[in-house]
Amino acid sequence: MKQLHKQASVNYRRDEEMPGNQYSPKTLKHPRSLPRSINYLFREQRLLFVLVGVLIGSTFFILQPTLSRLGPSEARTAVTSSLSGSSSVVQSSNRGSSGIFQRRSVSGRVPADLGRRRLRIVVTGGAGFVGSHLVDKLIARGDEVIVIDNFFTGRKDNLVHLFGNPRFELIRHDVVEPILLEVDQIYHLACPASPVHYKYNPVKTIKTNVMGTLNMLGLAKRVGARFLLTSTSEVYGDPLEHPQKETYWGNVNPIGERSCYDEGKRTAETLTMDYHRGAGVEVRIARIFNTYGPRMCLDDGRVVSNFVAQAIRKQPMTVYGDGKQTRSPFNLGNPGEFTMLELAEVVKTVIDPSASIEFRPNTADDPHKRKPDIGRAKELLNWEPKISLKDGLPLMVSDFRNRILNEDEGKGL
Ligand SMILES: O=c1ccn([C@@H]2O[C@H](COP(=O)(O)OP(=O)(O)O[C@H]3OC[C@@H](O)[C@H](O)[C@H]3O)[C@@H](O)[C@H]2O)c(=O)[nH]1
């Protein structure tokens, strides 16, 4: 650097020495000409102008740190409001036992006409059942959303109502490959979530969970984005603690048929926390329990969608094993626990009282019980489920009825 500087100043002097340059101050070479410069400075109040210039310059440098402090505090307000906005899908944050809650100031564009800064958010798996509902929420609150999806289980139909919206973009991309995007937040949902789908190609499932999560965390680190991982209640495996608190470490078979998903998500959680501790990335982890609702794939294979589709199609509801295993299949994690047989009864009441049940052998490593302890979500996020199974099922049933009808008419969605 010094060398460069020297070179530059040498060149400058050479230019000045060029013949014919009337400003060529050969005088610079001769120290005895210094008094002439001082005389020049004192003539026509030039010294006064120099002092005024110095004063303006110092004022700027004194004020500058104060101005730059304003930025992050505005960003903090934006982050807090966006946090409360997304609390319905966030179960646990990293404000955990360690007490660590590192917040990086969010950089980016601040449109002058908005109270809350518009965020640019990428949602991986945004064409899926949960992802597309999240995208709707983010668009509705005014953010810019980029969805990336490989359409393994996601469907364009879930997002078609957003096509043409200038704040929405859709990219066909598999998270197993890196991608570079300038974003403020990353919601990482990409991964098949139904046991039927994730067991279909277990190697691909674990790659998605490990390499996909690494790629997205790498992006978060690179662009300074906040990162949310949607994990699963399956990290608890076949739990020995009931109900399950976030502090429970689980009981998971590492070499079973479900391991690609269970252990894949556990590894994804580990990577998330390592990027937080090691690289200062601001992270959230949500452990989502068995979920149902409109836009689920008709062939999703999870219990609620199976029972609903079967009852609508007048087929027997397939209960695996003895049907005594429990889940709490609402929203993020509803502590209202019931057996599969009890669920079948509710489906009967809502859809068709004459619907029958067919018992089938249960799948390997199927967890016997599952019920979230949501004390932490209640306390930290003021979140709790609002929709009971009896109220929630009809919302899904009308969506399924329409699509099954279209499918029967050869217009399968
Ligand atoms: O047709 C069916 C389908 C499933 N079942 C039973 O219903 C229970 C629930 O099974 P599901 O296939 O719906 O899914 P699971 O609850 O095992 O896991 C799911 O929930 C947690 C999510 O995070 C995961 O993405 C998802 O894997 C199991 O005991 C299963 O054996 C039936 O009895 N009949």
From TrEMBL:
Alphabetic keyword roster: Decarboxylase, Glycoprotein, Golgi apparatus, Lyase, Membrane, NAD, Signal-anchor, Transmembrane, Transmembrane helix
Biased composition (Polar residues): 1-10
An annotated Gene Ontology molecular function: UDP-glucuronate decarboxylase activity
GO cellular component, one term: Golgi membrane
Top-tier EC class: lyase
Keyword Repeat part of the UniProt annotation: no
Membrane topology value: Single-pass type II membrane protein
UniProt entry tagged with the keyword Acetylation: no
Catalytic activity: UDP-alpha-D-glucuronate + H(+) = UDP-alpha-D-xylose + CO2
Pathway membership, UniProt: Nucleotide-sugar biosynthesis; UDP-alpha-D-xylose biosynthesis; UDP-alpha-D-xylose from UDP-alpha-D-glucuronate: step 1/1
EC number, as in UniProt: 4.1.1.35
Annotated InterPro entries: NAD(P)-bd_dom, NAD(P)-bd_dom_sf, UXS-like
Parts of the chain that traverse the membrane: 46-63
Cofactor(s) recorded in Swiss-Prot or TrEMBL: NAD(+)
Span list, region Disordered: 1-29
Annotated localization: Golgi apparatus membrane; Golgi apparatus, Golgi stack membrane
NAD(P)-binding domain segment(s): 123-327
One of the protein's GO biological processes: D-xylose metabolic process
Family recorded in the similarity comment: Belongs to the NAD(P)-dependent epimerase/dehydratase family. UDP-glucuronic acid decarboxylase subfamily.
Function noted in UniProt: Catalyzes the NAD-dependent decarboxylation of UDP-glucuronic acid to UDP-xylose. Necessary for the biosynthesis of the core tetrasaccharide in glycosaminoglycan biosynthesis.
Name of the featured protein: UDP-glucuronic acid decarboxylase 1
